[in-house]
Amino acid sequence: MPSSNYPTSLDGSTEQPTPTSTTDLDASGYEHDQVHGAHSTAILALEAKIGIAANNASAADQYAVMQKSGSGVDATTTWSKTITGSTLAGTTLSGAVTGGDQIMSAVTHKDYAETCAENAASGAAATINLNDGNVHHVQLTDNCTFTFSNPVATGDSSSFTLILEQDGTGSRTATWPASVKWAAATAPTLTTTADKFDVLAFTTVDGGTRWFGFVAGQDFA
Question: Fewer Cβ atoms within 10 A, N terminus or C terminus of the chain?
Answer without folding.
Answer: C
